[in-house]
Amino acid sequence: MPALPAASILIAAEVKPAKLEYTSVRHLAENVTLALLDNGFDGHRSGEPPAPVATVRCYVKNTGSAFEGRYLGAGLSHVLEHVVAGGTTVHHSEKEIEKIIASFGGVTNAYTTNDHTTFFIDCPARNATTAIDLMADAMQHITFESKEFARELKVVRRELADDEVDRGHVMSDLLNLTVYAVHPARHPVDRIPRSLERHHEPNDHRLLPRRYVPNNQIFVVVGDVHAADVLDHVARQWGTPRACETFIALPEEPEQVAPREAVREMEGTAYDFALAWPTVTVSDRDMYPLDLAAYILGQGDSSRLVRQLKYENPLVLDVGASSNTPHFVRGCSPSPPPANRRPGRRPRRKFSARSIGSATRMSARPNWPRPRSKRRPNRLPAADGPAAGGEPRDQLSHHL
Questions:
Q1: Inside any domain, residue 258
Q2: Total domain count for the chain?
Q3: On the CB side of 117, how many CA atoms lie within 13 Å of its CA?
Q4: Are 211 and 286 part of one and the same domain?
Q5: pLDDT of the chain, 400 residues: tens digit per residue
Q6: Residue 364 lies in a domain
Q7: Who's near 132: CB < 8 A, 6+ residues apart?
Q8: Structural domain span for residue 289
Q9: What is the pTM of this model?
Q10: What is the number of alpha carbons within 13 Å of residue 267 lying toward its C-beta?
Q11: Residue 13 domain-assigned?
């Protein structure tokens, strides 16, 4: 997520039909204000804004690729993100929404990860209330138009074609498939068009009302805004009742007891590889030492791997390390840090992901599972079309 201005308001909701009331307002250190609505929405504000701008975001929990239930592996969360972001609602058509955002020079986009979906509008601070209105409308009153669905499905197919020749996505998916043998974290955010066509009919969007509910949503407003005004406006805009709690039973990933290896061959002269160790859960006391070790090993030009393998004894084009610890599954370390943008297209090359005993190590180019962003005109830059020559000739093999 891009760097945010200092002043911020964070709100999460569990909403009742009646007008909402705040049950508590706390003033914390460094000019931070934390407020809690009687429906569960909480918010905070901090610091002095450096510029008259604002960003309005809504994070929807339990909507990523690992939380799709009986749709697991179909990429439904990603498709729903495309339809909801800027899509027609009961109050505004898609064109009207685009016109409103363009009128104040705003930018809007969305992305999906394996455990949440995020929507945002960046705008001048004076238009923050309008952005809140649009976001609240999209989160509660999307109409799911068939024409928009069909168009966005084509966009998803184009993204999938791009990803097949994108080394970062290839390595990321290959690593997850190697590290996680059972857990849904092994499934990519996107999926092959064949799966999309099988599961995603225009009238088959029952996952939407079960996931896009107030008690799954965290609403964030950051920028040159007044906390009291924003909290009051949000309380008036969210009128959807609290829904049933989302509970997806996720299986435990069994301990790895033998080496694992996966190889995919692609055109090119370079060789990328990844090694990664399955590590700990987010509540484990060893999580912070692992984070620190990853920084020492592979974060920045002075880190040990970068200094020794890239500069002192130049054997690699790039190298990195980090420790990922999701809240819903045991993590793996060291592995490259997350990226919020798609890297430029580079020559096709060979990839390998290997796990030895109870461990896998990752090096070379950062390949963290990337959030999938919606790319459409008048928002963020559109995705490029498929690479010339179509999909690469490749081969995928797993060695356990």
A1: yes
A2: 2
A3: 31
A4: no
A5: 444 444 444 544 443 445 667 777 777 776 666 766 665 555 555 556 678 999 999 999 888 999 988 888 888 889 889 999 999 999 999 999 999 999 999 999 999 999 999 999 999 999 999 999 999 999 989 988 888 888 988 898 888 888 888 887 888 888 889 999 999 999 998 875 455 555 555 444 666 778 888 888 888 888 888 888 888 888 888 877 777 877 888 999 999 888 888 888 888 777 888 888 889 999 999 999 999 999 999 999 999 999 999 999 998 888 989 898 999 999 887 444 333 233 333 333 444 554 443 333 333 333 334 444 444 433 333 333 333 333 333 333 333 2
A6: yes
A7: 56, 221, 230, 233, 234, 237
A8: 253-375+392-399
A9: 0.76
A10: 10
A11: yes
Nearest C-alpha neighbor of 369 from the set 152, 78, 105: 78
| One domain for residues 33 and 115 | yes
CA nearest to 71, candidates 159, 191, 173, 180: 191
Is 171 inside any structural domain?
no
Residues facing 118 on adjacent strands = 59, 111
Give the type of residue at 348: R
Query: Tell me, what DSSP letter sits at residue 358?
Result: T
Instruction: Specify whether 221 is located in the same domain as 304.
Output: no
DSSP conformation letters of 333-345: ES-PPP-SSPPPP
Q: Where does the chain have alpha helices with state H? A: 76-84, 94-103, 128-141, 146-163, 167-179, 193-199, 207-211, 227-237, 287-298, 304-305
Task: Name the domain boundary from 180, 206, 237.
Answer: 237
Selection from 388, 329, 379 nearest residue 161 by Cα: 388
3-state secondary structure of 57: strand
Q: What angle do CA 342, 347, 350 make, to 5 degrees?
A: 100
> Which has the closest alpha carbon to 391: 188, 191, 162?
162
CATH of the domain at 94: 3.30.830.10
Q: In this structure, are 197 and 261 located in the same domain?
A: no
Q: CA 361, CA 344: separation in Å to the nearest integer?
A: 25
Residue environment code for 135-157, b if the CB has 16+ CB neighbours within 10 A, otherwise e? bbbbbbebebbeebbeebbebbb
Which residue, among 262, 305, 277, has the nearest Cα to 399 in the 3D structure? 262
Specify whether 71 is located in the same domain as 215.
yes
Statement to judge: residues 258 and 116 lie in one domain: no
Residue in the structure block whose two tokens are 């909701």: 13
